[in-house]
Amino acid sequence: MNYDTSIRPFEFGKGETFDDVRQCLPPRLFALAEKSQDLLGIDARTAAMGGLAHLAAAMGRGVFLDDGTTRIPPCFSLAVISDSTSPGEWLATLGRGWLEEAKGISNFWTSDQAKLVLQRHLRDAAAQDTNTRSSDPQIDQLVNSIPVDALKMVHTQYLTTRTDPTAAGLAIVQNSGRTTTMINGARDPLIEWGQLKPILQRQFNEMLILGWLCKPMPVTPQRTEIPASLTCLWQTRTQSLQQTWFSNRSICAHDPPPVLLFKFTGSPKRLPDVNAPEFADWAQLLKIAFQCRRVINGASDIALEQSVKVIAELFYKQFDSATATLPKEMQPWLQWIPDLALRMYHLQLIAHSLEQTIVATAMGKGQKQPTEFTIQQKQQAMMSAVRLTRWAANEHFQVLLGFMGKSEVARLSTGSDNTDTQRLEEGILQKLKDNGPQSPRELQRSFHELRAQARDEALLRLKSKGAVTKDSKGRFEVAA
Fold this sequence. Notes:
It comes from Prosthecobacter vanneervenii. With 480 residues, this protein is an alpha/beta fold. The protein contains 21 helices and twelve strands. The strands form four sheets. Strands 4-5-8-3-9 form a five-stranded parallel sheet, sandwiched between helices. A three-stranded mixed sheet has the order 2-1-10, covered by helices on one side. It is globular, with a radius of gyration of 25 Å.
């Protein structure tokens, strides 16, 4: 067997940082992330996480990963928690390559232009019929009386801004692609969630869970089950999340929704540079992903070979062992995370295939069939997917610590290696005093043979003590 299973044991609070996994990103997303601070005003790790979620949403249920028992789409849910006062919707801006396409389609079928298009087609069809004259009064009457309901029947709603199970169900029914993505509307989506009646909160939560488990949803008035995915790409605030999902009265306490939580600090630009080459290249990839989804529409599967599955299974075992050491109240919020690795693997292959399509089109070769992946390429893709998932899991875990008790930080951060922890913390503080704010990578370079794990644990301890804070660029500095 050729696959590499040399994955170090997984531990919460001691896993991959973004610096460890940035090379696992699709090339266009990597290029954008590297310049995201200048272009968008957001740090690279945030651009990377948001970009992966947008690529998954753009593909929807266009292509499935077949693991032998379940057909799994790449889409997953993401909620970015930010208390920034900036009014800019940077997350939507990051996905404009496909969001603008999706909104354009929805807006067309609710416009007068759509009615004119249908009228023209009816007249053209009548003119081609030898038994019917295009000026026939009956045809004129039919054409001119096209009702609005007829337009709604062909309306394709890929997006919804309402955090409401009824609205989400209607969007799914109207969506021929069977994938609906919830994005921010005028209000914080978690505030809208908290204002729903408890029965509607449970119903909405169930829809997110069923979508993640790839099971049909009973969304019609007759409770007919429809194969569909419901995902969210949300920006929310710490207080909203605390009140809605982590309060004592929350219905999510024992059955949390499968939504990846990600903490973001910073001030996004009001006027992001969306014309920069890196941003334009990323938007092009998202646009083609969405176009492929509409054309393919679930007609294609990617098989999960046994030699690739073994790598994921090893991660599952490590993750389960690490989760078992955590408090029981925290475990339900993490139990769905391992299957994110299959979505990340799916995205690795999709991004590579789309890149081939873009290159072939640019060379005038049309959209030929992408080259088949070798087993070695698939194994490497799964290794990258697992590493990205380990990073995402720790980002999610850090958010949970903030809501479920900071005392856990001290327990998880003990006994890292032979590094003198007190001396290391003192050394980090001194370097920050001497050199000003520094990124984790800059700090690591300033020490001789300092491991990333020891660095991160020391920074975590210093942060929990209130000795250091992060600035808007994600760099550490001595607390005021």
